[in-house]
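fyi for ur records
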Amino acid sequence: MTTLLVIAKEPLPGRVKTRLTPPFTPPEAARLAEAALADSLRAVAAAPARRRVLVLDGAPGPWLPAGFEVVPQRAGGLDERLAAAFAGCSGPALLIGMDTPQVTPELLTVDFADCDAYFGPAYDGGFWALGLAEPDPALLRGVPMSTPTTGAVQRARLVDAGLRVRDLPRLRDVDTAADATAVAGTAPHSMFAAELARLGAVTGR
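which gave:
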C-alpha cells in the first residue's frame, strides 16, 4: 500500500499565501491557507494508505487530524525538500502539497500495478501530485521549481528515467484571489470554500 505525503508550511500570517495579499490581509491569507491544508489532510486521512506523513515547515496545530506522522522539512530549495520527503519512504509513495483543497480521496487512491509514477499537472505549469513506485530522490533534485515549465521538466525527468507515467487530472493551485474563487467553486463543500465565503461576508469582497 502507498505512503501518502503532504508537504506544507505552518499557516502563519506573512509566511503563507503571500500572493493573496492584497486583496486579503496576511491573517486572512493564513486562515485560507489553514483551511486549504485542513481540506488536503482530510482527503489524505480518508484515502487508503500504509502511512500518512506530514512533511512540515513549522509546528503542527489543531488542524492536524489523528493518524499522521509529522516530520520536519529539510533545508534547501523546494526540489531538495521534495527529494528528502521521498527519501524517507520505502515502497510506493504519493506526495501532494497544501494548495489544492479540492483534492479528493478518490484522486489519492492510486495503484502502481501497471505504472511506475503518477504525475498530477497544475494549471500554472507546476504539479500538484507526484507518485513514485520506487522513491528516488534523484528524480527531483535539480528540477527548477516555481516556473511555468516546472511540471514539464519534472514529467520529462520521469520519462527520461524510463518510468511508465500515469497522469492524474489537471488541478488549479490556489495562488491568487482569482484562483481562490475558482477553486472554491469546484469544491463548494470544502472548509476552504466556507472560509472564503466567511471572509467575503465579513469584508464585502
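Residues 3-203 form a domain with the Spore Coat Polysaccharide Biosynthesis Protein SpsA; Chain A fold (CATH 3.90.550.10). thats all i got for now
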